[in-house]
């Protein structure tokens, strides 16, 4: 099962985890591991951040996230995949993204969670603009290391 949310409101990591866990009884107790990742707005030491604005293209963004989750589902024996991504103005320390994966085994849960984040960082249609305390602002591009991580998943295909 795949569940995707793109939203302005914050999310509760504990509740997201409980939702992943709650499917265990309905499938006969097959969940052996749950891996999660939560990303947050990082402040910049050399140029302090006032906030980061995250924009997206409604419909296209959800479709991209769904496709990424489906690729993970095809590659690893996952049970549940949950992706929550926030949009709007977010201050340093606020949560941006949650990815949770349940599986019968931990290795599949870890790998699928990492894969989803690596692909999301480079392929999902989100636009991020940092607004600094000094009044300057700049668009955020994917880092070279993010591109390399995403490309490394394709080397085994």
Explain briefly what this protein structure is.
The chain has 157 residues and is α+β, with helices and mostly antiparallel strands. The protein contains 4 helices and 8 strands, in the order βαββαβββαββα.
Can you offer a commentary on this structure?
The protein has 157 residues and is α+β, with helices and mostly antiparallel strands. Helix content is 38%, strand content 34%. It has 4 helices and 8 strands, in the order βαββαβββαββα. The chain has helices at 13-26, 60-75, 106-123, 144-154, and strands spanning 2-7, 33-40, 49-56, 78-86, 88-90, 95-103, 126-132, 137-139. The strands form 2 sheets. It has a 4-stranded mixed beta sheet, with helices on both faces. A hairpin with a 4-residue loop joins strand 7 and strand 8. Helix 2 runs antiparallel to helix 3 (106-123) and helix 3 (106-123) packs across helix 4. The longest helix is centred in the last third of the chain and has 18 residues, at 106-123.
Low-confidence stretches: none
Query: What's the count of strands?
Result: 8
Task: Please indicate the percent range of residues in DSSP E strands (runs of 2 or more).
Answer: 25-35%
Order of helices and strands: EHEEHEEEHEEH
Structural class: alpha+beta
> Using only CA atoms, what is the Rg?
16 Å
Spatial sequence of strands, sheet with the most strands? 1-4-6-2
Mean pLDDT: 89
Largest sheet descriptor: 4 strands, mixed
Helix content: 25-40%
What overall form do the CA principal axes indicate? globular
- Enumerate how many helices there are, as a single number: 4
Give the distance, in angstroms, between the N- and C-terminal Cα atoms: 23 Å
């Amino acid at each position: 099962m795949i569940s995707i949310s793109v939203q302005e409101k914050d999310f509760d990591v504990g509740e997201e985890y409980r939702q992943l866990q709650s499917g265990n009884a309905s499938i006969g107790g097959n969940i052996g591991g749950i891996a999660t990742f939560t990303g947050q707005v990082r402040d910049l030491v050399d140029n302090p951040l006032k906030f980061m604005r995250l924009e997206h293209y409604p419909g296209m963004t959800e479709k991209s996230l769904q496709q990424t989750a489906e690729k993970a589902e095809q590659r690893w024996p996952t049970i549940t995949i949950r992706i929550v991504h926030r949009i709007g103005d977010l201050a340093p320390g606020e949560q941006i993204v949650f990815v949770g994966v349940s599986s019968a085994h931990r290795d599949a849960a870890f790998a699928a969670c990492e894969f989803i984040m690596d692909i999301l960082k480079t392929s999902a249609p989100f636009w991020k603009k940092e607004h600094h305390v000094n009044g300057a602002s700049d668009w955020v591009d994917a880092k070279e290391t993010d591109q390399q991580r995403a490309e490394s998943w394709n080397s085994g295909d």
